[in-house]
Every structure is written in C-alpha cells, then in structure tokens.
Amino acid sequence: MESGMRRKNAVITGASQGIGKAIALYFARRGFDITLNYIGDSPDEVISEIEAEGAKCLPHMADVSSFSQAQELINASKSRFSAIDVLVNNAGITKDGLIMRMTEEQFDSVINVNLKGAFNVTRAVSSVMLKQRFGSIVNIASVVGVCGNAGQANYSASKGGLIALTKTCAKEFGGRGVTCNAVAPGFIDTPMTGGLPEGVKSKMLDSVALKKFGKTEDVAEAVYFLASAGYISGQVLNVCGGMLM
Ligand code: NAP
Q1: How far is C-alpha 168 from the geometric centre of its chain's CA atoms?
Q2: Of ligand 1's atoms, which has the minimum distance to the CA of residue 213?
Q3: pLDDT value at position 192?
C-alpha cells in the first residue's frame, strides 16, 4: 500500500454484519476510512461504531450482483476519498440444498452474489487501482471452495470460482503493483452460520483441529495482514482452525 500523509481507505462489501462488519472495524481501528457497502437496512449502529474509532464512514447501498450498482459503489468511494487502497469482496449468501433438489434460482442467485458480485466490484475498482499503481484486493472465499461440501454445490462452486478469480487478478494486476489474495474461512460464528442445527454444528466441530469455531476478528486479522503485505499475491490463506490442511 502507498504511505504518506493521506489517510488510507478500504471498500468493504456486505459490511453491515458478521465478518464484513468485523473487517470494517478492524481497519477503522488501524487508521482507515471505510466505504461500507450493504444491501438491506441502513446499518446505523455499525456506522456509529466506525466513526467512534475516528474514521470517516461512507455508507453505500448497492447490490453487488448488479454490474451498474457495483460501478456506482466504486465511483462513490473514489469521489469521496480520491484513491482506493483496499477492496474486500466479502458480500456473500447461502441457499443450501442437495444437487438433486437444488432449483435454478438457488444456484443462480448464489453464483450471482458470491462470484459475479466479486467480479463486478473488482472490474470497477481495477481502473482506479491500475491507474494509481497501488492497491490490495482481498476476496473472502471459503474452505468449501477448495474441498467441496455436500448440500452446497452452488456455494462451494462460487467460492472455488472466487479463488480462481483471485489468482487471475493477481496475474493481470501484479505488474501495476496491485495485489489480490483470498482468505478462506472455515466455520466462523456469524448470523450466516447461527441458524444451523446443533447436530450439524457439532459434526463440523469434530473436523476442526482447534476444537472451536472461529471469531469474525480471526478473519479480519488475516484480511488486514494480506492487505498490508506487499510481496504476497495470488494466495489463499485458510482461517479454519486446522479444518483444512
Ligand atoms: P452474513 O452475516 O450473512 O453477512 C453477509 C453480508 O453480505 C451482509 O452484510 C449482507 O448485507 C451482505 N450481502 C448479501 N447479499 C448482498 C448483495 N447482493 N450485495 C451486497 N451485500 C450483500 O455472512 P458472514 O458469515 O459474515 O459471511 C461473510 C462472507 O464470509 C461471505 O462471503 C461468506 O460466504 C464468507 N464465509 C463465511 C463463513 C462463516 O462461517 N460465517 C465461512 C466461510 C466463508 P445485508 O445485511 O445488508 O443484507
């Protein structure tokens, strides 16, 4: 990342709750201004928490699966902060089901948000970062994008695709000083996983070497590390307590 007197800033998609919120707060505590993307209700409490850290916060509602709304998100961030240091593609959804019963809508909607959404925002930020000749992109993938998961054909395919997108970006953007990496969380305690039945949770815990679920801050710490590392690109960092090795 570039240093100097200018305050750095990060665009974080899907930052109204869960992992995205933790990433936004982690960066704000370390001197970053935040462009906070969300799709539902305005996350007023999160905005206040970010501002309480002394950071500026630009909330921006956008559906990342929309090519034009992703472009508007980046346009808004660029015009407010003049440069963009970090993009974290975090927005994601699940619509689980076995392949035999999975509907076209279930498959398409998860691919559209998790994979096409990351492409849309990356495509929009690429002209900014390549022109300024610095920037870091961190994509929030998942361990199931590497190893697959029964009942998550759509989700695991979207995350596997996101890992391939990460490596391609690293190759296309590297010559202009822009890095692109992925974090692959295992089981992290968030609203996304909160609704899973206890039986499913305890079965998953059996496969975690550290025998506990991760916290959102564990993922934020890894994202910050990759966004700050100048000579790491095209890599996938598993944050999964030893679930996948
Ligand atoms: P979460 O609590 O459900 O939060 C998801 C966020 O994405 C919300 O802020 C939501 O916004 C936003 N979002 C959903 N659709 C969107 C869209 N079309 N455009 C913009 N924003 C959208 O999920 P989480 O557990 O924090 O997960 C965050 C990321 O980590 C996801 O990519 C997920 O796949 C990944 N991940 C999570 C785990 C885990 O164990 N939790 C494991 C591996 C990977 P609103 O609140 O405004 O609807």
Answers
A1: 17
A2: 40
A3: 83
